[in-house]
Write a structure and sequence with these properties.
With 411 residues, this protein is an alpha/beta fold. The protein folds into 3 domains: 131 residues, Rossmann fold, CATH 3.40.50; 166 residues, Hypothetical protein af1432; 62 residues, Molybdopterin biosynthesis moea protein, domain 2, CATH 3.90.105. The strands form 3 sheets. A 5-stranded parallel beta sheet has the order 2-1-3-4-5, with helices on both faces. Strands 6-9 form a two-stranded antiparallel sheet. A two-stranded antiparallel sheet has the order 7-8. α3 packs parallel to α4, α7 packs antiparallel against α8 and α13 packs antiparallel against α14. The termini are far apart.
Length: 411
């Protein structure tokens, strides 16, 4: 005796599958509908032609279509082929009273038919096929749910990673502010390099160009010079005495070694280590351009310019002329061209005085902020943060600040 109820678990039962039965003999279709609804928790809809079936599918979602093969106007194979082209996820079952091997082969290969039921059908056969379809649909739904959950988790992980990266970058910026107390000239120089490097990097659309690594490298690239006398970095390297020059040339390596304990800074260490290398391979470690990452090439250019103009008071035009003559040997051509575009725009920024009460985060300092006693509080080129604003107000209460200048583009 046939058990007329399918043995499916509770998870499957909560899905009420929708079935469309297509047969020009509605009486026969009605019998099949009644039997199927006894076998499982499903909802069946009847129609008597292929054209009507396509109209129904345009307006409603179905997971299973059972169609008779022999129908006027549009037979079951034509209907199945049309459905498979428009709705590839719908499962198709073909019913026919005259099974033919060629028809079966055509139905499977060309029309996307998954199952075949011959007339008159056996209830046991219908049960087996229906069980298989329900399992298949349940598995498909599980896969869809898993993919949706995976996508949600990926989005959450991406947000967490972004938040961690932002927090890490804020920590580096805070470290840079603390360094300003120990080495104000070097810190101001590094902050200027970071701002300039970011603008140059913005000229490129490179997937492998990590702007956060470039900013961190720029802020920390002279870490190895902390503790050196001012003369070491205020004097052109070629004019330094023998031992002092050797010590100066080692500062990229020293700085990279100081960051060795931080795995997150592995790429940053590489950029810092090679930021004085020439692309023709004539630098300290003789690393040629094809082995230098693009961030190091940008940092090389921005650091050289800021060293010359801001630390050693060489003229803007003379420095650019010197750099241009070494295009393709010391400096990467594309990076140098982008740098020249940027520096041409920002070489002479206008600045306006702004009361401390009107300062907001995001403004860029146009001139060193100092106290009345000449103590450097914040370097030119710095971008104001909430932390900086709090520091400025505290310093102003203790030792009033001189007039503060902000670049006009930020006002």
């Amino acid at each position: 005796m046939i058990n007329t109820k399918l043995n499916i678990n509770e998870t499957k039962k909560k899905y009420k599958m929708k079935i469309l039965i297509v047969d020009d003999e509605l009486k026969t279709a009605g019998i099949l509908k009644s039997q199927i609804e006894q076998l499982a928790e499903v909802k069946c809809t009847l129609c008597d032609s292929g054209s009507e079936a396509l109209k129904i599918l345009e307006e409603h979602d179905y997971e299973l279509v059972i169609t008779d093969k022999n129908m006027p106007d549009m037979d079951g194979l034509m209907l199945a082929k049309s459905i498979k082209e428009r709705y590839p996820d719908i499962i198709l079952i073909l019913i026919s009273g005259y099974p033919d091997l060629d028809d079966l082969t055509n139905a499977i290969n060309d029309c996307g038919i998954s199952y075949y039921i011959s007339k008159p059908w056996e209830l046991a056969e219908v049960k087996i096929i229906l069980n298989s379809v329900i399992d298949r649909i349940h598995l498909h739904r599980q896969n869809v749910d898993l993919m949706l959950n995976l996508e949600k988790h990926n989005i959450q992980i991406s947000k967490l990673n972004n938040n961690l990266e932002k927090s890490f970058l804020e920590l580096i910026r805070l470290l840079s502010d603390i360094m300003a107390e120990v080495a104000p000239e070097l810190t101001r120089h590094s902050q200027e390099v970071a701002l300039l490097s970011k603008k140059v990097a913005g000229k490129f659309n490179k997937k492998n160009l990590e702007n956060s690594d470039l900013e961190i490298s720029s802020l920390l690239h002279d870490l190895g010079l902390i503790g050196f006398s001012k003369d070491t970095f205020l004097t052109p390297p070629q004019r330094l005495s023998g031992d002092l020059r050797k010590m100066y040339l080692q500062h990229p390596k020293i700085g990279a070694e100081m960051l060795k304990a931080a795995p997150r800074l592995k790429r940053v260490r590489k950029i810092i280590l090679t930021h004085h290398e020439n692309i023709d391979g004539t630098g300290m470690y003789e690393i040629s351009g094809d082995k230098l990452c693009f961030e190091a090439k940008i940092l090389r250019i921005c650091d050289f310019y800021c060293d010359a103009v801001n630390l050693r008071n060489e003229t803007h035009q003379n420095t650019l002329n010197f750099m241009k003559r070494r295009e393709g040997t010391w400096f990467d051509t594309k990076a140098l061209q982008a740098f020249i575009e940027v520096i041409t725009v920002i070489s002479g920024p206008q600045m306006l005085p702004v009361p401390i009460t009107k300062l907001v985060a995001g403004m860029q300092v146009a001139k060193d902020i100092v106290s009345q006693n000449g103590h450097l509080i914040l370097a030119s080129g710095s971008v104001l943060t909430q932390l900086n604003l709090k520091r400025l107000k505290i310093y102003n209460d203790l030792d009033p600040l001189r007039e503060i200048y902000i670049t006009n583009e930020n006002i």
